[in-house]
Specification:
The protein is mainly beta and 92 residues long. The chain has one domain. It has one helix and five strands; from the N terminus they run ββαβββ. The longest helix has 4 residues. The radius of gyration is 19 Å and the shape is elongated.
């Protein structure tokens, strides 16, 4: 969403607060045009408690991730929306 394109918001400063009872990863990206010269920067949001990611963590590629329909509460089973298949995640 480009706020500058919304009526009345072209010169507006915006801030966001994200709250959750689960760990959340957020990115703050800013893009600008300064007298015809475009640029930008980004940074991760505030980290209250560092999250340790174990080496056994599985990574799901972007194409597969967009088809995930459901993830179990214990984060061990995923249901894929395209096929309805349920898959158990392993630690190996």
């Amino acid at each position: 969403m480009y706020l500058d394109e919304l009526p009345g918001l072209s010169d507006t400063d915006v801030s966001t607060t994200v709250t959750s009872d689960k760990p959340v990863v957020c990115e703050r990206a800013v893009y600008f045009d300064y007298y015809g010269k475009s640029g930008g920067h980004d940074s991760s949001g505030y980290v209250k408690n560092r999250i340790a990611i174990p080496e056994t963590t599985k990574v799901i590629d972007g194409d597969s991730a967009k088809h995930i329909e459901e993830i179990s509460a214990d984060l061990r089973t995923i249901v894929e929306g395209r096929t309805g298949e349920s898959r158990q995640l392993s630690s190996s």
